[in-house]
């Protein structure tokens, strides 16, 4: 069984940065780890993911060049560095683990965290 716990959310001004962390318990080293987000009144959407080795990453167009995903298998953690934040980045951010494809779909992930709220003020 895998459990995921996100942290690092908060309130930040536009243009600022935040680093989200996802602590994983269980054997996640062979899982693809992803970040999704859900803004108020909108569907949950893909943000970024990283392969089990860390050698392959994928980003949504809306965050490409501003967000960076990384993982530390030794610490069973995955991170999301968010720079140049915009008000439209405001959402609850979820960490997920899965082994299916395509990696951008919610259904590809088997385990989810409870989410952490990011609010970007203008």
Main features:
122 residues; mainly beta; four-stranded antiparallel β-sheet; 11 strands
Write the SSE topology:
Layout: E1 3-7, E2 10-13, E3 18-25, E4 32-38, E5 45-50, E6 57-59, E7 67-72, E8 77-82, E9 91-98, E10 109-112, E11 116-121
Parallel strand pairs: 2-11
Antiparallel strand pairs: 1-3, 3-8, 4-5, 4-9, 5-6, 7-8, 9-10, 9-11
Structural account:
With 122 residues, the protein is mainly beta. 0% of the residues lie in helices and 52% in strands. It has strands at 3-7, 10-13, 18-25, 32-38, 45-50, 57-59, 67-72, 77-82, 91-98, 109-112, 116-121. It has no helices and 11 strands. The model has no long low-confidence stretch (mean pLDDT 94). It is globular and about 40 Å long.
């Amino acid at each position: 069984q895998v459990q995921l716990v996100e942290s690092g959310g908060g309130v930040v001004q536009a243009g600022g940065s935040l680093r989200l962390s996802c602590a994983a318990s269980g054997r996640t080293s062979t899982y693809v780890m992803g970040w999704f987000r859900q803004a108020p009144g909108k569907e949950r959407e893909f943000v970024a993911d990283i392969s089990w080795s860390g050698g392959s990453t994928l980003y949504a167009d809306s965050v490409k060049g501003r967000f960076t995903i990384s993982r530390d298998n030794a610490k069973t953690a995955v991170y999301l560095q968010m720079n140049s934040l915009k008000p439209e980045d405001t959402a609850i951010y979820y960490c997920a683990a899965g082994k299916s494809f395509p990696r951008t779909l919610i259904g590809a992930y088997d385990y989810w965290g409870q989410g952490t709220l990011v609010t970007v003020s203008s």
